[in-house]
Structures are given as structure tokens and as C-alpha cells.
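Collaborator request, handled under Task 6.
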Amino acid sequence: MISSLFLHILSGIAGLWVAIAVLPDVMFLGSPYLLLTAGAILGIVNAVVRPILHILTFPLRLLTFGLFSFVVNMATVWAVDVIFPELVIPGLVALFWTALIVWGAETLLHVSQKTLSS
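C-alpha cells returned to the collaborator:
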């Protein structure tokens, strides 16, 4: 449980950092410490709130063959964007790509953790 939470926090930090580095519209105007805090909050939201949202949106995910899961991922990134005004994600396109990068970082870290543990 703790290692899973740690991986979510690490993937949130890494995903935000990569999104800020790669996407020209996404910016972070605060200190690096605040970026680590925003990434950690994103990881905690992904570890705690996202599973609850997945349960609540199960009928929509069933109707859309799981594609609504990405809307939930975008909502978690948007929530962190609202909490931290230093994080600037202008528009849905930038939010889409940021959520995709965070999802990719999370997937890579979880797959590598499973590979290393077996």
C-alpha cells in the first residue's frame, strides 16, 4: 500500500515535470519545491480520489468502453491546476496532453515496479 502511494506520488511529480518541459503552453511559475508539492498532491489525488471516481463513473466507462477513464484522469489534473495557481494549463488541448503524459509516467513506473518485483 505504501509503495503504491509512493509510486503514485513519484509518477505525479514526474508527469508534471515532463509535461512542463515538453508542452509549450504548460508552465509552472512557482519554485521547484512547490512543483514537487503539486506533483505529490496529484499523486495522492490519483491514489485516493481517482479509484472512487472510477467506481462512481462505472456506467459511463462501460458505455464508452473505458474511454471515460481518461476524462477522470483529466479531471484529476484539472483539480491540481485549480488548487495550484502557479500551474498554468490553458485550455482543454493542453489539459489533454498533460493528462496523457501523467498517465504515461504512471503506467511506466507501475510496469517497471511490477517487472522488478517479479
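The cover message to the collaborator said: "Residues 91-117 form the longest helix (27 residues). The chain is about 80% helix and 5% strand. Please let us know whether this matches your experimental observations."
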